[in-house]
Write a sequence for this structure.
């Protein structure tokens, strides 16, 4: 039976059934606008993923998701993994499968077939879940090998983030809930693997190495993609792993601010266009821009960071209004990452109260705020007063004071001294 499957897939691959070709890989990166730079970053990511498959930088599948023979192609992939005789070979095949699947989805996205992207993202996310299970199984017998496999998966996924982010950005609002459901499974798998890397130092080192690999090629603003990947993954990490990743996040936020300050006005204007368009999740981008804004002391840079912020809120208002009317079941996906009960989440909510349509604030943002405050209230009971004060002092501005005032109204009298100390810090 398996021989028949192999022969069938090979035969139909040769005759080119369901053929769809990739666009020629661009090697001369020339751009005039920030939006063109976003496209270039995605081309670079696709090229790097293609190189990981066969070294050519091109992946030109003949059998595509959504065609009649694609299930046979996946059956062939699974058979290869099944008959691989050691863990490394199995992992390399899983990585190859994931690379092929993300590029197949990228081709569909380029062809405007976002309905097929949404439908087939689940197959890609399952590949990541299978990698995670393989790593978990290996950890029981060979922790050192499991760690090496985890690092390999992480480096792979940081690059995949650039392509996956594109799917969110280009999806019609009717498909957003389905795409984000698959995205959540992906980041849960990656988060579990990262959390299992060991000490916080090891998590930090592996994360930093993966980010450096991502930044190896691309435009001068690519750090914002790295920050987006870190922000997206951190919500699925263990507390210790999250602290380690936050340190790497702070490092690259500082680096991006330094680079931004060195740019002339023309380059900063391109940055405004780039940062306003590159992320499919406006809330993640708002968090990145809030970090930049809170730590930047250059007047010219600060003004351009504010322009990005204004553009993001315009985009967010438009998308949220469209979702509420066309796909109300997806409304929660726009704000649910803000419900964790973190001070940084409440900073974004505070800005939303001032920049989002008042009707949407009442219908959507207020619910997210209540949930976030409730979750923070639960955390605060267990958190040490000094640690909370240090955490709250990471941003020392009027917005932070307003957030602390909101928290103070919600918590018990026993926990109010923690807020008082945070204000004093």
């Amino acid at each position: 039976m398996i021989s028949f499957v192999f022969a069938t897939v090979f035969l139909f691959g040769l005759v080119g059934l369901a053929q769809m070709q990739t666009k020629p890989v661009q090697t001369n990166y020339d751009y005039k606008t920030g939006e063109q730079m976003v496209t270039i970053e995605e081309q670079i990511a696709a090229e790097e993923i293609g190189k990981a498959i066969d070294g050519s930088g091109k992946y030109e599948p003949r059998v595509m998701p959504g065609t009649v023979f694609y299930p046979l192609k996946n059956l062939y992939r699974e058979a290869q993994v099944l008959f691989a005789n050691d863990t490394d070979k199995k992992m390399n095949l899983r990585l190859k499968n994931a690379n092929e699947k993300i590029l197949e989805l990228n081709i569909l996205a380029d062809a405007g077939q976002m309905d097929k992207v949404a439908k087939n993202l689940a197959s890609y996310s399952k590949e990541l879940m299978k990698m995670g299970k393989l790593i978990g199984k290996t950890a029981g017998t060979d922790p050192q090998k499991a760690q090496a496999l985890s690092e390999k998966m992480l480096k792979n996924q940081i690059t995949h983030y650039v392509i996956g982010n594109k799917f969110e950005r280009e999806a019609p609002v009717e498909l957003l809930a389905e795409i984000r459901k698959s995205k959540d499974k992906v980041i849960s798998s990656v988060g579990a693997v990262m959390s299992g890397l060991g000490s916080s130092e090891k998590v930090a080192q592996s994360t930093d190495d993966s980010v450096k690999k991502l930044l190896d090629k691309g435009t001068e603003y690519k750090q914002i993609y790295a920050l987006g990947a870190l922000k997206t993954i951190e919500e699925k990490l263990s507390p210790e792993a999250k602290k380690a990743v936050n340190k790497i996040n702070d490092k690259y936020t500082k680096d991006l601010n330094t680079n931004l300050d060195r740019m002339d006005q023309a380059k900063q204007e391109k940055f405004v266009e780039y940062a306003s368009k590159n992320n499919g999740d406006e809330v993640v981008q708002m968090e990145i821009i809030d970090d930049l804004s809170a730590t930047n002391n250059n007047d010219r840079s600060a003004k351009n960071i504010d322009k990005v912020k204004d553009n993001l809120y315009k985009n967010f208002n438009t998308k949220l209004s469209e979702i509420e009317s066309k796909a109300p079941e997806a409304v929660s996906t726009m704000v649910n990452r803000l419900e964790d009960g973190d001070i940084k989440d409440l900073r974004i909510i505070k800005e939303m109260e001032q920049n989002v349509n008042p009707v949407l604030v009442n219908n959507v943002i207020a619910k997210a705020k209540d949930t976030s405050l409730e979750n923070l209230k639960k955390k605060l009971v267990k958190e040490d007063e000094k640690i909370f004060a240090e955490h709250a002092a990471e941003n020392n501005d009027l917005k932070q004071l307003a957030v602390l005032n909101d928290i103070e109204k919600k918590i018990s009298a026993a926990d109010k001294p923690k807020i008082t100390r945070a204000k004093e810090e």
